[in-house]
Amino acid sequence: MSLTDARYMAAAIRFARRHEGWTATNPSVACLIVADGVIVGMGVTAMGGRPHAEPLALAQAGDLARGATAYVTLEPCAHHGRTPPCAQTLIDAGIARVFTAVVDPDPRVDEKGHAILRAAGIEVERGLGDSKAREVLAAYLVHKKLGRPHVTLKLAISADGLIGIRGKGQVPITGAQARAQTHLLRARSHAILVGSGTALADDPELTCRLPGLEGRSPVRIVLDANMRLHSGLKLVNTSNEVPLLVVGPVNPALAKTGTQFIACEMQDGRIALPELLEDLGARGIQSVLVEGGAQIAKALLSENLVDALALFTSPKPIGAGESVKDHIASPVLANDLRQGFELTGAWQFGEDRLETFARNA
Question: For an engineered disulfide with 101, which of 27, 33, 129, 201 has Cβ 3.0 to 4.6 Å away?
Fold first, then answer.
């Protein structure tokens, strides 16, 4: 493996983000075909999950694929469907070398794809760019391993450590550039989750409103065990445009609007979150972005159900002049993280800072 190989794989990993969250139960995988130092074919798993990245890249490369090198972010599939496995497609195209970043944990694959390639005389190297590729594949990998969605907790935190003020509704904390990044996180997620308290206090839409990505709004999920939601909310009024899934008893008035419902188990008067995540995973939801309040955040953290953190920190305080009893403190701060998470990235967006963390494997 050379520095050049690492650069091609890094490019493939970046390319894989293009359809992240929009390939159904398949992961968003990228494949680059390189011949004589030139990228001759590029493919990323199509929207909806088919076709896979490899046949798309090979189709673009054409005859130039013979003797070339393929860089694939996930091990090529080994199982037959209506189309041949991607490992066989690479063989048929005459690929000479294959670099993969991550072994596919699917029992139908799990090194079988590599074995097929090697048996055909193709040179195979695995593990190139593994850690970065896992960030893109995190939802798929968690879903395969645990049967539940990958959970990202997103928080906007003021300089004085608050995420809101009781009774004030939506309190602006971050600027426009940071908020745009939140919309990008939404576009990459299968679902957004909030509690009924947030839905009532803020009346959010929870859609992706980035130009060109409006159609990539994920399913909105609201925890509502006590049937507090009403038909005047933006979430409800847009349920025919972007799916709304309410966790709790069926509310006949909301059901008429197209709102969907999912039954929930209760524990100590609250929705049982582990069981809920299992049910969402069974529906094929592989990634959940949590934008709820402090109560949901604390519950998920206390039950070790958070896989990643996206913490936006503003340099401006919001608590001045407000009663301390109305302060809503953030359950976690970037500079005071509990053990179990490691920093994966840091960016500056205007005056605000975004830091991302992943749970240690």
Answer: 129
Q: DSSP letter at 106?
A: S
SS3 assignment, position 276: helix
Q: What is the pTM of this model?
A: 0.94
Annotate 221-270 with three-state secondary structure: EEECCCCCCCCCCHHHHCCCCCCEEEECCCCHHHHCCCCEEECCCEECCE
Helix (H) or strand (E) holding 312: strand 308-313
Residue 6: alpha-carbon gap to chain centroid: 24
Q: How many residues does the structure list for the chain?
A: 361
Rg, Å, the chain Cα set? 22
Sheet containing strand 97-102, strands side by side: 38-44, 30-35, 69-74, 97-102, 123-126
Q: List the structure tokens of 154.
A: 């997103």
Structure tokens at 271: 């929705």
Rounded CA separation 39/188 (Å): 26
Please report, rounded to a whole number, the percentage of residues in the chain having pLDDT higher than 90.
92
Indicate the burial class of 10 (C-beta count within 10 angstroms; 0-12, 13-18, 19 or more): middle
Q: Could you tell me which residues are beta bridge partners of residue 346?
A: 355
- pLDDT single digits (tens) 322-338: 999 999 999 999 887 76
**Residue 51: is the preceding peptide bond cis (ω within 30°)?**
yes
What six digits make up the tokens of 256?
């008429």
Angle, vertex CA 285, rays to CA 281 and CA 289, nearest 5: 110
Distance CA 142, CA 140 (A): 6
Provide CB contacts within 8 A for 80, sequence distance 6+.
Answer: none
